[in-house]
User: What shape does this take?
Amino acid sequence: MIPYDNLSKVNEPYSLIFQSRFNKFLEKGWYVLGDEVKKFQEDFARYNQMNYCVGVANGLDALILAIWALHLPKGSEIIVPSNTYIASIISIIHAGHKPVLVEPDITTYNIDPTKIEAAITPKTKAIMVVHLYGKCCEMDPILEIADKHGFHIIEDCAQSHGAKYKGRMAGTFGIMSGFSFYPSKSLGALGDAGAVVTNDPVLCEELKMIRNYGSHGKYYNEVVGYNSRLDEVQALFLEIKLPYLDKINEHKRKLASMYLEQLKDDFILPVVHPDYFDVYHIFNIRHPRRDALKEYLLKLNIGTEIHYPVAPNKQKAMAHLLAKSSFPIAEEIHATTLSLPCSSCHSESDIQMVIEALNAF
Assistant: This one.
């Protein structure tokens, strides 16, 4: 069996050092917002070439807290891609605002900059860009639009750890950027974990308060906050893995290059362009007979996933907000996309077997 992913195998190289450092952590007796979180925040900010990082409980909270910290007028509109993972949209709703969906570019699967201005209204206050699958959005025109209208840019970097656009890291374009460290991410924890990065010291302090009940000091609450603190154990594990993130990305890029070079023309492959340094958190192809292809591969003991099977506007949870909306490009992507094995648990020989199976379909 070639699984889509194998997290046990992915994390095996870090097991012994984690166990050793966990024992020392356990003896220390400081289990919330201690040295492990502080160290990871410093190192992750440095990795992303940013000044500050605030660790939170998960990627969704990272986006919610980032929006809260902006203090936008209640009911503001935030532009977001129509094919994103539902968390991006949920974060806007939970923060008390309205998501306005804009279609993606069918070749990159990221928000289409040429369609943004048509969605702007007097209530628009921000654009949430989502660097989907490990490819950065086309940021130059998006930055121009935001500057022209005075909008904030919030980056959803849940899938783009280490990705770059024109040499600039994902997470460095917006006023704040939210990261997820869900176990399947390229930099994955042992459970839920997330972070917000920013260059703004005022926002950094606000985020630290919000995540901790609105408090800088125990029992003294300055704002109505939330409980969303990065767990010390997760921070410890992430700190161990962080120095290997570039190596993980390079391995995934090598596997992706095999797919790109060898798969036959029947499959719609990710677009490659020199402006983009793609990290292939997800290596997706598209095919009109996606479901039959997935079943065919499963019979050959090859695991795949679908990211994502249902477009956000077709989700039951969005019926009250988006049911009457039509997003044909997003719906086409969701109906045809298939994610192939492309993980640090896979060898080149694994991928060669997947390629041969695909080319025989």
